[in-house]
Amino acid sequence: AAPAPPVIKEGPQITFAKKEVNFGKVHKGAKPTRELLFTNTGTQDLIVEIVSGCDCTTLDWTKGPIKPGQGGKITIIYNSAEKKTGKDDVTLDIVTNTDPNIHQIKLKIEVIK
User: Fold this and answer.
1) Which end of the chain, N or C, is more open, meaning fewer C-beta atoms within 10 Å of its C-beta?
2) For the segment 31-87, what is each residue's pLDDT rounded down to a tens digit?
3) Is the dihedral of CA 56, 60, 65, 68 positive or negative?
4) What is the value of pTM for the model shown?
5) Alpha carbons 64 and 49: distance in angstroms, whole number
6) Residue 6 has what DSSP assignment?
7) CA distance 104 to 113
8) C-alpha–C-alpha distance, residues 49 and 94, integer Å
């Protein structure tokens, strides 16, 4: 049997290029930057309302409506200055005008001296 065609949900939909962002090994005190790309795979404008992480992250994201088929990005700056050495897992909470409206992306970091 042929696979069913993908169901296109009405309204905005956010699809991330990946579900986790791996910073790899980060020297204590460094502030590496990564970008997380996403696409509006829905039928209406997507709004990213807020992105939150921990005190160790500085976040910026595409503001304003993102048309269906268009993409945006979240810029993540990780500040390792206050962190202990070892593995650090951070969860980003991304609030959008989609259903469901909260999406989580994991950040994987290993702080080294």
Assistant:
1) N
2) 999 999 999 999 999 999 999 999 999 999 999 999 999 999 999 999 999 999 999
3) negative
4) 0.90
5) 9
6) P
7) 29
8) 8
